[in-house]
Amino acid sequence: MGATLLYENKILGEKVSDDVATTRGSLTIKVAAMSNDADNGCLGVSGAVQFEHNGEQRGNTFFDLHHQENYGDDEYDEEDDSDWEPINHLVIKKWFCSNCTMPNFDDVYHCDVCGEHKESEIFSHELLKYSFGDGNWNSINTESVQMFQGTSCKSSTAMGFDERMLLHCEAVMKSHPHPERPDRLKAIAASLAAAGIFPGKCTLIPAREIQLEELQKVHSSDHIEAVQQSSCLLSSYFTPDTYANQHSALAARIAAGLCADLAIFIMSGKTSNGFALVRPPGHHAGIRQAMGFCLHNNAAVAALAAQTAGANKVLIVDWDVHHGNGTQEIFDGNKSVLYVSLHRHENGRFYPGTGAANEVGVMDGKGYSVNIPWSRGGVGDNDYIFAFQHIVLPVASEFAPDITIISAGFDAARGDPLGGCDVTPAGYALMTHMLSSLSQGKLLVILEGGYNLRSISSSATAVVKVLLGEIPRYDMSDVKPSKAGLETVLQVLKIQLKFWPILGTKFEALRAEWKLIASNRRKFGKRRRFLLGPIWWRWGTKRFVYELLYGHRKMRRHSKRFLL
């Protein structure tokens, strides 16, 4: 796959073009190249380097569908501005929230998205005071290696974490901070430390890099090479929203390796359950592409590692607010892995646009992809728990998995800048508790998204407490979904009935309930129409006056009968 290499002589300011035919994968790079390194497969070019990939047309990115198309590019303008003149005395000042990274006008003192104060001291707060470089981690790592190398030792809850994953960051600072940042891991780890959970009650497993043969079970060779190639460059982009630096490939290999080992330790009985505190996230990474902040698919790697360790059937529940298109693609035709995703969809308008209810798998995997696509934002605890009660748990129990993996994105949490939903830490804790009843408690939780530091730290802490045995407090007697939530559950039940007959009784009961609600709504609508006056007056006269005033004289045929 060819590409054009442009490099700039910084002294003379001259640009020279050359052709390069060895660029692999869908990697777009704007970089300052590093030194030649033949052993690592780095390109032997010095100076400022830019690759422009001429391969497949990319789809929508995170920022396209979150209305941030020109993310970090203040100079982007397709219109002719030759006659533009600056407006004197107009200076638009803004500040970026330290908690969720969202922009706010300078005269606003609390973030419009998460409510964080303009002068927040979150980074000096107890939340982020914990030091990762004080030497404690080395001693913890030594103890964990000794523990997990033994055959008789067993831990209740294992934790996967390594400081080197913090090195993965956006090297080129832009006008808008990137939401997928190292502070996400710091916030969660510090919250766990403040709660006395980790280090303390959880056991840290030794970190290792995932091996090539393990990655090749999930991703294509071109994709693996493209990710590895980014280690030769100071800054690179797979898509406009998916960055990499020289440490990103290593961080991705460590994240995948930790997830694989946690799955193996759980299956071998060395630990009851585990939490993978890892980044970069993975559920958007497909067979051939990195996207949506994701490089390697950690959940897919863990699922196949669990099967290598003895699991016949694996359940993956993805509650990230975005559909895990990469995970679904990898297991679309595999009936030994059941993939269940609850995500905001909005008829394909929400990133990544996949995950409709009728996407059920292909060939032998038909019925083993269960998508629960919310039709709008704002869905909260009751909608998720209602879906768990009527779809997730019945299907999962019938499937009878040997291990359950949660792709735990916390971007459906209240106050998240990208999710726009309303799940609370108590809701995440209850969903974790409900899933712990499956596969004899063999449960692996893998961090995916979530970009509000306060919400992801409190939500992750609530989940880990459940893994440690705490029973969540939640009033199950008052679980009533929203109208949109009920409609989505009914839609999914109707589609999945042919694959999971156990859903039949729940579908009939809910359909009867929905008919009753619809009937009451129609009666109320008739009473309201009568009280507000005759329909011909409200629509006929107002339409006529509007068109008379504004010159819209052409009217639809069906509206003529309403004219006076």
Automatic annotation (TrEMBL):
E.C. numbers: 3.5.1.98
Location, primary (coarse class): nucleus
Keyword Zinc-finger appears in the UniProt entry: yes
Annotated catalysed reactions: N(6)-acetyl-L-lysyl-[histone] + H2O = L-lysyl-[histone] + acetate
Intracellular or extracellular location(s): Nucleus
InterPro entries for the chain: HDACs, His_deacetylse_dom, His_deacetylse_dom_sf, Ureohydrolase_dom_sf, Znf_RanBP2
Domain RanBP2-type: 95-114
UniProt keyword terms in alphabetical order: Chromatin regulator, Hydrolase, Metal-binding, Nucleus, Repressor, Transcription, Transcription regulation, Zinc, Zinc-finger
Necessary cofactors: Zn(2+)
Protein name per its UniProtKB record: histone deacetylase
Biological source species: Dendrobium thyrsiflorum (Pinecone-like raceme dendrobium)
